[in-house]
Amino acid sequence: MSPSPGDEVKTTTCYMCACRCGIKVWLSDGRIRYIQGNPDHPVNQGVLCAKGSAGIMQHYSPARLDKPLLRVGERGKGEFREIEWDEALRIAADWLAPIRERNPDELAFFTGRDQSQALTGWWAQQFGTVNYAAHGGFCSVNMAAGGLYTLGGSFWEFGEPDWEHSRYLMLWGVAEDHDSNPIKLGLGRLKASGAKIVAVNPVRSGYGAIADEWIGIRPGTDGLFAFALIHELLKADRIDLDYLVRYTNAHWLVIRNPGGADDGLFARDGEGRALCWARGLPDGASEGRAHPADAIDIAPAVVGEYSLADGRRAVPVFHLIAERYLDPQYAPDAVSKRCGIPAETIRRIARELAEAAFDHAITLPIAWTDAYGRQHTEMTGRPVSMHAMRGISAHSNGFHTCRALHLLQLLLGAVDTPGSFRYQPPFPKPIPPPNRPGKTRQPNGALDAAPLGFVHNPEDLVVDANGQPRRIDHAFSWAYPLSAHGMMHTVIRNAWAGDPYKIDTLMMFMANMSWNSAMNTGETIGWLTDRGEDGEYRIPRIIYADAYASEMTAYADLVLPDTTYLERFDAISLLDRPISDADSASDAIRHPVVDAAQQREGRDVRGFQSVLLELGARLGLPGMVHDDGSPRYRDYADYIVRHERAPGVGLLAGWRGEHGELEAKGPPNPQQLQRYIDNGGFWRSHVPESARYYKMANRGYLDWAQKMGFIGHADPIVLQLYSETIQKFRLAAQGHGAQQPPPAHRERVATYFDPLPIWYEPFEGAQVDQVDTKFPLSAVTQRPMFMYHAWGSQNAWLRQIVARNYLYLHPDTGARHGIADADWITMESHHGRITVQARFAANVQADTVWTWNAIGKRRGAWRLDKDAPESRKGFLMNHLISDITPKGDYANADPVTGQAAWFDLRVSIRKADAEQNARGESEPQFAPLAFAEAEPGPLRYGAEFRARRAGGNHEQD
């Protein structure tokens, strides 16, 4: 019933976080008047958060860059001269062309939260560099790898709880920044239906605040808590054996041959099929014998040791599970103190999970056929669902913690059944997914595959003949073998150190690596500015693309100014980070709702994706030029429409074919983008009703997914309780196989490559406690619902909610350390020290302190006022985090995936001295950057609309 807020409305996709909601952008005389949610969009159904609404001030931010910049002063000062695009592209091409000619690996190309990895990864592949990575290794690769090597899907963006049917939801380490609107909608449905919500998190904020129960766990112990729940379920025999035998490898036989090259591998027949021990067989034989595990109408054993025809001994996977997790070390009383959770609470949660799963099972009257041809008249579900995010992922034990949660789900029969965790298309994928990381260059200089992928065995590692890393970040090496997203957080140190070799150019996009995306800010700044004995920078050249004058912009030699998200085309692709829900496959676009050239006088910016394609054409990269050397693509919009990753497969799945009559696969459609625009910016294809559950073994889904191009074949996907892939690495570390780790890594690989989930003390805590116990507290960050990284906390409207942060600690913690509410305190880790202001809050586990992430700013950055509270009183915890372990032997990361272990941080706190208290500023403080100063006075927007209408219809104001 509201009056129209503008004279024109356009629909597109939000970019104020990773949620990618549909929005309606109202314009008035060509200027943005109002942003609201699009009620027709499948992601948010019209709901919009503070971030999305404040997109106006993101677009009109004073921090926007206007022209390409060439450094004229010392690196890091922020002193540049504006240049034209032709000069900028000529300089970039002149730097990159010799690299590609002599050794493409001398280019390190690392992207932040760009959401266009389908392009940037392909570009790196065509350039020929193995040194490409994206933000996930800094953020969520434990989540992705843990799920994809276990379930063929994962938490976060590849799956969701069954919001309609779930009766019991556990949120593990979930903050409010990612996927927030769908989660809020889902939580509302669960609250209305009477489901119980349990939040497991050291901090109670956002979702935890509305949960029925908050479990304030000690950071890094989630896996131990999960094992205690598993222990109780096994002890009570409250597990779904039918589900395990039908859909997992619980009954597959594992060879027991200690010291042998086949120890821990699956027993297989001559055709390579995994074997089980079948007691009941279709032919009526009663004696047990080894039999293909994928056969139907058999009664396989799940416990016991058996002798194979060749004399080898083997046990079922489930036998190993029971053997391990029934051990008293995982009993609630044994883990209670370490987790900070009462033993009776653990036992009660286990009982509640079992009751919800087995005593309140739900049945949907939907007929379906499984992958083996069996017909079912209904779908039975376990209404227990789980969702997890960075809180469990960003630890050095996070990969195994993620696998532990999946093991818990599987024992309950609660993966892709009604009421449980559900896959979102194009998942599930084969386990592991088929694409391996590229490492060999073809005659045209391009890599044989994209630089990122999934390792299946030691032979897939990107190492040299001596087993040493070939990538500058050491991803896919023996130190971090399954680093599926790369290791962005190790790049700058390694490039500075020339480890394993010197690079020439570091090219980055939307990655604030000199500030809030640095594992240690001060050290990173030093590496970016350090010079060698010859007086030249040790990282010779840095090209940086961003829309804003961030802290990282100051450290570039060449700055390529990006557009805002309302001025360009983007593809939110099924090849990248899809926006599907469990019942449908979806993708979307962004398109220019305003013309960048008309937004500010003298402003000349270009979308980085288009710039990348033009740069590729200037370099003559394969796939980016015609035979005569002319550019193959006009710009990114043209690439979205015409590029085919495989015949008929492009970035967008909707309206393919000459006339837009096809979906998922088909020839390019010249009108495809217009069809998206006409449809509100998105495409959606519903999964057939009979194919919406049991996707891993549902004939209807597997056939549909193959037709859509999501999977290469329609074979069932067997969920992996026990990972043979991981066991292959352990065997290599024990001296077996053609590819073995160097001696320095053998013990590490043998320890952490356990085919069943394990728990170990996070590295930082374990190593500092070996020296002393002066760092008794864990320190973590939460990302607020109303901000998303540094790019949101510079937003004028969002800054009115929070313009500085505090260190929050429990009142009891303050009393133990002689600290009063609002005191300025010194906070110290093994690696650094900061001064911050403390506030008491009871919403935190008493051995943990926390703060909001990415609020602190450097003076001069983001064109904030020189006295902005973000720089005077705000702070980053990053100053305390080391990028290497306290021992200095490895990156501060998960040993399996290389995931940055942000949340392993251990600290001490004490009241600051009188001088620091009197000064009332956070420390450290850095010299201001030399960007243009902010305009004096408040930043306002919209007053001209009111003034223009002052004499008109008051209701239109």
Automatic annotation (TrEMBL):
InterPro entries reported in the protein's UniProt record: Asp_de-COase-like_dom_sf, MoPterin_dinucl-bd_dom, Mopterin_OxRdtase, Mopterin_OxRdtase_4Fe-4S_dom
One cellular component (GO) term of this entry: cell envelope
Intracellular or extracellular location(s): Cell envelope
The protein, known as: Molybdopterin dinucleotide binding domain protein
Keywords for this protein: 4Fe-4S, Iron, Iron-sulfur, Metal-binding, Oxidoreductase
Signal peptide: none
Required cofactor names: [4Fe-4S] cluster
Pfam families associated with the record: Molybdop_Fe4S4, Molybdopterin, Molydop_binding
Organism in which the protein naturally occurs: Lysobacter antibioticus
Gene Ontology molecular function: any one: 4 iron, 4 sulfur cluster binding
Family according to the record: Belongs to the prokaryotic molybdopterin-containing oxidoreductase family.
Domain 4Fe-4S Mo/W bis-MGD-type span(s) in chain numbering: 7-63
Record SUPFAM superfamilies: ADC-like (SSF50692), Formate dehydrogenase/DMSO reductase, domains 1-3 (SSF53706)
SMART domains: Molybdop_Fe4S4
